[in-house]
Amino acid sequence: MVDTTRITGAAKELGGKIQGAVGDLTGSNRDSVEGRAREVQGGAENLYGQAKDAVRNAADQASDAARDVGGRVRDAVDDVAGSDGREIRERARQARDVAGDTYERAERSVRNAGREAYDYAEDAYENGGQYLRQGGREVSHQVGEHPIAALLVAGLLGYGIGLLIHGRD
């Protein structure tokens, strides 16, 4: 099952790409910057969701392996039920060793997935911060060059947000 964070992240990433492209086409630096920031945020959420999926899959694999080992132990006990105790103890020891190895592999896999997810999220966060600062500088520059246009855009955005929040009466 795919994590919902992954889906919403991909949607935000796509929405950000579209908003950035529209901003590039219309010459709106604000839309372009906001789109890139949303794209980075969506990418980070998508990576986080992928990491959660990887951890969930690793846990499922470890659980399946433990069930498999349990079945093997039952089979081994059934096979040697008529023999002396040494053979049963040896098979049980082997099963315990296999279970321990499987657990250790699963634990390493989960830890590696967690580290990779953290690294991806950290990179996405750093890149997002850089894009946001760059976008902020660009927006400030554009507002400084075109203050009246910036005021009009801000007023229109405020009006649009007001319509969205309060609805049309």
Detailed description of the structure:
This protein has 4 helices and no strands. The chain is mostly helical.
Provide a short characterization of the protein structure.
This protein has 169 residues and is mainly alpha-helical.
- Largest sheet data: none
Our estimate of the beta-strand percent is under 5%
Poorly predicted segments: none
Provide the succession of SSEs: HHHH
Determine the fraction of residues in helical runs and give it as a percent range: over 70%
Query: Radius of gyration, rounded?
Result: 28 Å
How confident is the prediction overall: mean pLDDT? 80
Query: Helix- and strand-based class?
Result: mainly alpha
Number of helices: 4
Compute the number of strand runs.
Answer: 0
Q: What distance lies between the first and last C-alpha atoms, to the nearest angstrom? A: 42 Å
Shape: rod-shaped
